[in-house]
Amino acid sequence: MRRLRPDRRRTSTSSDARTTSPSSRPASPSSSRPPSATATTRVVHQAASWCLGYPDEALVERLPLLAAAVDELPAGRAREGLRTFLDHAAATPLDVLQTDYVHLFDLSRKQALYLSYWTDGDTRRRGEVLAAFKERYRASGFLVDTHGELPDHLPLVLEYSALADPDDGAALLQEYRASLELTRFALIESSPPYAGVLEAVCATLPGESPKDKAAVHAMAAAGPPSESVGLDSADPRLLPLAGYGTAGYGTFDGSA
């Protein structure tokens, strides 16, 4: 389900170019020019947004369309990563996909799809960060329906990048690159098909992906400071990037 739509109450010459989904403007097969990097990135981000949402009948219906769009992408990590998931989804009953999704993303913090959770954890600062996400969405000229999710939910951020503001969306994803990479590593261990989706997203961002978790922590070393709420600032439960791999995370309910 699309979460963003143009805000008709706001008008600007630049917003007109943002009202069309990248999938509705495919490169012409007869054109000798390859798709631009921006167009390719938007297709990857929109496809990844759908793949990372809760699997439902709408996803099943979209699978042929997604597969066709992904097959038109240039060869490389993004296409391979998305195809890994799409092949898995096509061969797996919907009820199994749904059960797996709940176990992966709703009942465990190790694969959290909330970007600022990895950098700000359970701190007061996270509320400010979530407000900043909302402000960026408002500035794009699009109305956003989060469907009850927090604004840093990765599928929503990816759709923002695909439909609303590709430049700021890519910048936002790069700001939380460490969150993306750590989630990718967690999914490599728990669900390779979903890891393929994170692999595709990371492939659209500048720079190479870290080779291991230690390199991710080094990437995050310059991240924002934490502010504890009832816990010592050094407590690993506050910042998952600092405490990744520790036991006792419990159930993640998506609340700030």
Give the DSSP E fraction (strand runs of 2 or more residues). Answer: under 5%
Q: How are the strands of the biggest sheet laid out side by side?
A: 1-2
Order of helices and strands: EHHHHHHEHHHHHH
Cα-atom radius of gyration: 18 Å
Largest β sheet strand count, sense and barrel closure: 2 strands, antiparallel
Tally of DSSP β-strands: 2
Distance between the termini: 24 Å
Low-confidence stretches: 8-31, 222-256
Mean pLDDT: 76
What do these coordinates show?
The protein is mainly alpha-helical and 256 residues long. 54% of the residues lie in helices and 2% in strands. The protein has a two-stranded antiparallel ribbon. Helix 1 runs antiparallel to helix 2 and helix 9 runs antiparallel to helix 11. The longest helix has 16 residues. It is globular.
Summarize the SSE layout with pairings.
Layout: E1 4-6, H1 37-52, H2 57-71, H3 77-91, H4 94-106, H5 115-120, H6 125-139, E2 142-144, H7 154-164, H8 166-175, H9 177-190, H10 192-203, H11 213-219, H12 240-243
Antiparallel strand pairs: 1-2
Helix pairs in contact: 1-2, 1-3, 1-7, 1-10, 2-3, 3-10, 7-8, 9-10, 9-11
Q: Summary?
A:
The chain is mostly helical.
For this entry, give a set of tags:
single chain; 256 residues; mainly alpha; two-stranded antiparallel ribbon; 54% helix
